[in-house]
Amino acid sequence: MNIGHASAASGVSAKMIRYYESIGLIPKTVRTEAGYRVYSEQDVHTLRFIRRARDLGFSVEQIADLVSLWRDRERASKDVKTIALGHVSVLERKIRELQEMASTLKHLAENCSGDSRPHCPIIEELANEDSPPVLAKADARFGALGKA
Hints:
GO terms for molecular function: copper ion binding; DNA binding; DNA-binding transcription factor activity. The chain is an all-alpha fold. The chain has helices spanning 3-10, 14-22, 41-55, 60-71, 77-110, 121-127, 134-142, and strands at residues 30-31, 37-38. The protein has 2 domains: 3-58, Multidrug-efflux Transporter Regulator, Chain: A, Domain 2 (Orthogonal Bundle), CATH 1.10.1660.10; 77-142.
């Protein structure tokens, strides 16, 4: 099948398929004499695997490791679990950071009168060069990450 069909069947854009091939995430495909890529059902299956991993937020490097483990019938499941739990840790940290940013913005918005006057604590906070980064302030206000 051509790249358009592989894209439709896998849910991965043609641009990303070409990128994954260029970085070695998927093997170089067979080409016709005219130079068109030809994809097999196994290629599409691999692309679906990659798409699902991307949907879960795995990095390209992690996906490369997962694809390698997927292809390795002698793999140890602990290796897969280690990658997954490492990713969970990163996701949980990002969730905490996003919650802290939302909390900071809510606090600033609550202290903004929202009227026709120019005074606005949101703008003042963003313009304050002496102010520590938002997450550092959230850490100081709430203690260590995630311990509100």
